[in-house]
Amino acid sequence: MAKQKKKSQRPKARLPKGFRDISAVEMAATRRMMDTIRAVYESYGFEALETPFIEYAECLGKFLPDEDRPNEGVFSFRDEDEQWLSLRYDLTAPLARHVAEHYDRLPKPFRSWRAGWVFRNEKPGPGRFRQFMQFDADTVGTASVLADAEVCMMAADTFERLGIPRGDYLLKINNRKILDGVLETIGQADEERRLTILRAIDKLDRLGPDAVRALLGEGRLDESGDFTRGAGLNPDQIAKVMAFVEAGLEGGGRADVIRRLEPLVGTSATGAEGIAELEEIAAFLDAVGYEEDRITFDPAVVRGLGYYTGPVFEAELTFPVTDEEGRTVRFGSVGGGGRYDDLVARFRGERVPATGFSVGVSRLLSALQHLGRTSREGEERPVVILVLDRERMADYWRMSEELRNAGIRAEVYMGTSGLKAQMKYADRRGAPLAIIEGEDERARGEVQIKDLIEGRRKAQAIASRQEWIEQRPAQVSVPRAQLVEAVREILAAQAADQNADPAAGQAAKAAANGQGEA
RNA sequence: GCAGCUGUAGCUCAGUUGGUUAGAGCACCAGAUUGUGGAUCUGGGGGUCGGUGGUUCGAGUCCACCCAGCUGUACCA
Predict the structure, then answer these.
(1) Which CATH fold topology does A383-513 show?
(2) pTM
């Protein structure tokens, strides 16, 4: 009885939903990807900046209206002095805080990149987590839309440097001011309705034009039978908004899209301003040779709501991909950004124009993996030195030292089990090879080196235990003095083999993944 | 948040009209094999049957409520 009680008090080992553990393999791939992004951003002149995970909630600007409590979407807690602290939910709000705080001594424009984890307290879904990594670059302190164009060019460069071919990604640019102009001409300027309209437009690529039309009007019934209330526009207004949204669907280049948008903003000054900005961006992109196959104009891009005040952009992967169950999935957006001229003004009163772009690191990484564009560099697993003779530990340590000094990852088995369990350990560890030195070998002045990858392959052909033991597949005996050299040779052969036969590499990777991933 | 579906071992699932101590396969651990990953054989660990309450002599099974997960949808700075 007491035992049962105790048992029920045991915590269940589990991760909070929306969070995950990250394996060594994924960390290595992430690190390589981020190195590439950083190299591109720095080549454009952006400086590194790191801000903490935690900020005062009020600095992130996410208090609920009329309430003394931060927004539900952010993880928040109270400091000992009763102030609300929040985990950052993006890298832009902390940047605005940093710029406002140190405005006087920063060079203007201030160009910085930041990378790291952000947190959102939202319902997780496939490919959506509550902790994920972003990689941002921003230019603060210039109102020129050339800064917007530059950041899009840089995003295009980044994707290509990461191995995504031109045509497999696309940057789409829009301008909030144009939609505002359209809404002005149809007499819908009030904020509440504007947000509903933005949300409806945002769903174009996911739900299609009919659904968007329904959401602009009365509302829409989804397939589970749930009803979403619409913006309540009349048919004439809906037609105008849809004409705007679909101006990008009819093909043609950036100039064609602009020409189709012009009549839709009517006499609105804001709309005209938006058009002029797009024209300036187009002229610049044409001049530096970033054509429509990389950067297009698409009025359906709205980027949620929030703080964007001018150009907005979204980066999309356009190639289809099949998931584990063989279904075709679209990766869709892997990054985005836009102009936020009011964000710093929250702190300073004075308007400080700014624009930036943010890459969704984790989504982009899984896209690259689907493309088979991730290299295996940095995935080497350690050689494992088995312990047959506990009195000779010093000998084994010396071996590991020699290997490490030669730049080879190596470890001495640290458990207390027998040889069989040690082999199993090395196998599961994903070790490329195991070193065996017992009494017999020592008497001969030799060590055995077992190629675990080759051995795994040969094992499939062996049926009987007898044969297995006698053959000792993929195992060689070399003089002790030649240990390092022999190990180096076998590792080189394995690497060559892996490059020639990707399937073998996959198998090794799968084995290596075994312990690290859920 | 709303709607639909699903909850039995780490995973995939079986479990009779309600009836002893809840099972299988895979996985895990150990031995057979003083010193060799795989295969084979033997043994072992692991379950609050999602939870609580109810009906009953008796509930994994029937009823009610709750919870969790999945999918869609809403929100998403």
Answers:
(1) Rossmann fold (3.40.50)
(2) 0.85
